[in-house]
Design a protein that fits this description.
Layout (H helix, E strand, L loop, with lengths): L1 E4 L3 H11 L5 H19 L5 E7 L4 E7 L5 E6 L3 H8 L6 E2 L1 E6 L6 E7 L8 E5 L2 E2 L3 H12 L4 E9 L1 H11 L4 E9 L2 E2 L5 E2 L5 H6 L3
Helix pairs in contact: 1-2, 2-3, 4-5
Keywords: Allosteric enzyme, Glycosyltransferase, GTP-binding, Magnesium, Nucleotide-binding, Transferase
GO biological process, one term: uracil salvage
Catalytic activity: UMP + diphosphate = 5-phospho-alpha-D-ribose 1-diphosphate + uracil
């Protein structure tokens, strides 16, 4: 597994505003969207392209376009929806799949309750988005899900990560596939409730309010 912590003044600025408990949901959503687009630039650095010929107003030349099969962006519901537009802004031709996963707050076990993904992901570059990499349980389950369907090139984009979650993903992935994790920051630790500290709270609640 490869970890990339994006180092940019705008990323640090927006992440700081996201952390502020006084940032209201509408502003939080906008910031999460903008931050995701900045992270998507790094997440898509290895996206596959192919050479094509185009004709400019002056002459013919060669250029690049995204290769087939198209990449697929997979937000983990519900919080991952807050990052979807930020990813597809840079990858408008990508397909979008959905994984509904939730963590049992008592046992911390991961339950999959929704799946809208192609049955066969062989040869597809998969871009999984989820704001928080805390224990790593949700992200590991999502990675296993796409690997079981044939994917071997997976990039995970998260706003924040905890060291415990990074270790969990690294240990779970092993050498089974090429997996990259791109984050805006790595925080100090998880508390007794498996929340990232200092973190930014529950991303889903801050994006959409309490349900």
């Amino acid at each position: 597994m490869q970890l990339h912590v994006a180092d940019h003044p705008l990323i640090a600025h927006k992440l700081t505003l996201l952390r502020d408990k006084n940032t209201p949901s509408p502003v939080f959503r906008q910031l999460a969207d903008e931050l995701t687009t900045l992270l998507a630039y790094e997440s898509t650095r290895g996206v596959r392209t192919e050479t094509i010929e185009v004709e400019t107003p002056l002459t013919k030349t060669t250029g690049s376009k995204l290769a087939d099969p198209r990449p697929i962006v997979i937000p983990i519901l519900r919080a991952g929806l807050g990052m979807l537009e930020g990813m597809t802004r840079l990858l408008p031709s990508a397909e979008v799949g959905f994984l509904g996963m939730k963590r049992d707050e008592e046992t911390l076990a991961i339950e999959t309750y929704a799946d809208r993904l192609p049955h066969d992901l062989s040869g597809r570059q998969c871009f999984i988005v989820d704001p928080m990499l805390a224990t790593g349980g949700t992200l590991v389950a999502a990675i296993n899900y796409v690997l079981d369907r044939g994917a071997r090139d997976v990039t995970c984009t998260c706003l924040l990560a905890a060291p415990e979650g990074i270790t969990a993903v690294k240990n779970a992935v092993g050498d089974r596939a090429e997996v990259k994790v791109v984050v805006a920051g790595v925080d100090d630790h998880l508390n007794e409730h498996a929340y990232i500290v200092p973190g930014l709270g529950d991303a889903g609640d801050r994006l959409y309010g309490l349900v």
